[in-house]
Amino acid sequence: MLMVVIILSYLYGPLYSSALFIVMLGYMLFTMFALNKSVRVQEIYNDQREAASARIVDTLLNIETVKYFDNEQFEHEQCDEILQEQEQAGVIKYQYDSWLAIGQNIIVGIGLIFLTWTSGQAVLKGEMKVGDFVLINGYLLQFLYPLNHFGYIVRSIRKGLNDVATAMNLLTLKPEVKDSPHAQSIKIETAEIEFQDVVFNYDERRTILKGVSFKVPAGKRVAVVGATGSGKSTIARLIYRFYDVTGGRILINGHDIRSITQKSLHSAIGIVPQDTVLFNNTLYYNIAYGDPQASKAEVQKAITMAHLDTFIKRLPDGYNTEVGERGLKLSGGEKQRVAIARVLLKKPAMYIFDEATSALDTHTEREIQNNLDEISQGATSLTIAHRLSTVVNADAIIVLDHGKIAEQGTHEELLARGGLYAELWQKQIHDGEGE
Asked: Is the pLDDT of residue 356 over 80?
């Protein structure tokens, strides 16, 4: 493009080079202006596309709930509505793309017409020869082709980057919880956890934990109980360092958990959650996930310790039984036993049982609780529970009330005090008799 401008300026004067420069400048300015408009429209389309995909996936993941309430037609209408919104945004997007291409061609066309007309008039007036006219038009094509190609490249790159904006934002996203530059990688054989005046909130307007201090000695079983919303499950999340404390600190074997790597911390702790979520894969895969490098014999040992072997033997496909999305083909008790086997295979230094039996029936709860008592014998464990009957054998019980420790001690000590724990115990006994 630069060579064409120089040659035409040298051979035929500044009129031609000036016209080409104006065409190039107008083309660039229009492209950048129109691209900014087009990109904003494309962002709206991308948002609508993501919203439609998320809505459809959400419907499919909750297909059982849809069927429970006979809302297939309602979901069909909702998905159809959001897909129509995506379609409308797509039509507007392609309209803007078309107007961009048309505008670029108009600018190029005006420049081509002007220079062809000017050179044609010069031939008619005898100011230049026909060969000069052909030469000028040949050079014009050599100028306009790369200009058009440049516009296409700029448009493609800009729109391509916008299309992958979600991925780019994810790659540049800074995690809220990250290892400090001087974080140590330590080996934890036996774990001792200590909370020192811990304050935490998810939202500054609402504090969840208010100066909580307690210790889980190595090899001891400690339970945390309290009413719903008292902050019990938050304690497990803080130990795993899914969030950092707002105030105070949490120690593991005397180390502030913020001073060690998250990998060291996570490898030392095993959890059996209230709601066990399994991968849409085989039973063996989900159990072996606790330690992907474990041998088949080690996996078998974990299955036996979790009392899952009898159940697996009854299955036609045995270990290769598909559990379905989120483990929907298994009962609550079966999923909990898979979670127990998985955590046993991990061989952690500390166990956390986060209301692991609260969603089970009484018979299954007792069986699972016996499993939990068995695997936590002599190991450091923290049990978070709503049902007090599951923690009567704990070495220490911590009672939370609205984010503060109301009292702590053994089951017998707390009953003797006649405080909040005794009140909760009497209430649960009464409710059990009422059933």
From this structure: no
